[in-house]
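Lay summary. Proteins are chains of building blocks that fold into shapes, and those shapes determine what they do. In this project we predict the shape from the chain. Here is one chain we studied, written as its sequence of building blocks.
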Amino acid sequence: MHQIYSQIINLVKSNISSADDSRIQFSDINYKAVDFNKNNFKKIDNKFNNNNKIVFIDGGSAEIIKSPNFSLNLIRVYCTIYKNDKRINSKKFDFYAFISAKNIGNELFYNADFIKLNDENDIIPSNEDLLLSSLDETIKQGITRASISNVANVIRRFSEIKTAINAIDDLENDDIIVLDGSLQCTFTNEKKYFEELYKKSIEKNIIICGLSKTTTLMTDKGNSISNALNKYNIVGKWLYHPVAEIKSTSHKAEMSFEKLHEKSRHIFRFEIYKYQKEKLHETISLLAANCKDAVFLGYPYGLIEADKNARISNQEKDMLLTLFSTKFGKDWEKIKDSLSNVDAHDILDNIC
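And here is the predicted shape, written in a compact code that computers can read:
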């Protein structure tokens, strides 16, 4: 047994790359990587005016009822606004999305219907943008037909962007919107929502950016970006830029990496709308001022708050399922029959 552990330890050690990484490895020809260079590290300072507002947006979803041909989801988006490192406003939006399978032209499509929970809810995306083929490459799982459950991820993402579009109305020159995640369009019709967001942001001079908790990008040696940048042993908080020239029309961003607190061990991927890249250093400086909370040192507290309030707990999900089962009354037993085919995993998950 000792030999097995030693073998595993040696494999782990040998794959913590000590090789000299040259650049990020992109598979798409629309991305041209810039070679790593110590001169690309810039110190994050506090010389910029911190009177601008910062809006943080995140979303969550929970599947309440699922069968092979329909899925009922609760979608939640949370938006919080900070100024001078203090929250000045916040909003939470909830709505239900009922996704069903439809046969159109002898092909299986997924369609969404929405149930509003309040009159203020204007973040619901268009039904037309969510009529998606079950073989749509952006929601498929490998070579198999996409699960109907995957459509909820698209709805949540579109709603997050719509929330950002609406937030601009209450913002002023050089205020900032931070989305959770990158600015890359990954779903069919997502580009339409980003284009509207960018157009409106340019009209009012509102800065659009996104911060990713994690990144799957690797270097040309197969190393993580964090490991590659940490090898330079840069002290303090810093931003690293430029990283790549992005020519993709579905990813209108300037990419960088940041360490947002001098005592943090975390490096995050940060993107800003490419036509606002001259505001990168100023934006990062203001964002770093929001990264002092010990809960997650070096990560914006506004995004911690947004993540916490956008999440839908299993307890809330179970409560809603119980509520609906009661509302259906005697019909619930018939409905449960259509759910039985997808319950097997849940049963196994609960076996101790």
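What the prediction tells us: The two ends are 27 Å apart (CA to CA).
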